[in-house]
Design a protein that fits this description.
Shape: globular
Helix content: over 70%
Number of strands: 0
Number of domains: 1
Structural class: mainly alpha
Strand content: under 5%
Order of helices and strands: HHHH
Radius of gyration: 12 Å
Number of helices: 4
Length: 66
């Protein structure tokens, strides 16, 4: 099911980024915990445009624990 949902997101660049970040962020939390994962993810977007920073921040703020 996740692969199918991912294909639906590809048409919308922001949705594709959100889907990828959500998956990455969840795996990062599993490895280093929520606080370090949030810092790491936001650091990756420090030099990007505001729209991408907002997508990364939304990922951190709305992530649901597994």
């Amino acid at each position: 099911m996740e692969q199918h949902a991912g294909r639906e997101d590809v048409a919308d660049t922001e949705a594709a980024l959100q889907a990828a970040l959500t998956q990455y962020y969840g795996a990062l939390i599993d490895q280093v915990g929520h606080i370090a994962a949030a810092s790491t993810l936001m650091s990756l977007f420090a030099l990007t445009d505001e729209k991408d920073k907002a997508t990364a921040a939304r990922t951190v703020l709305t992530h649901r624990a597994r």
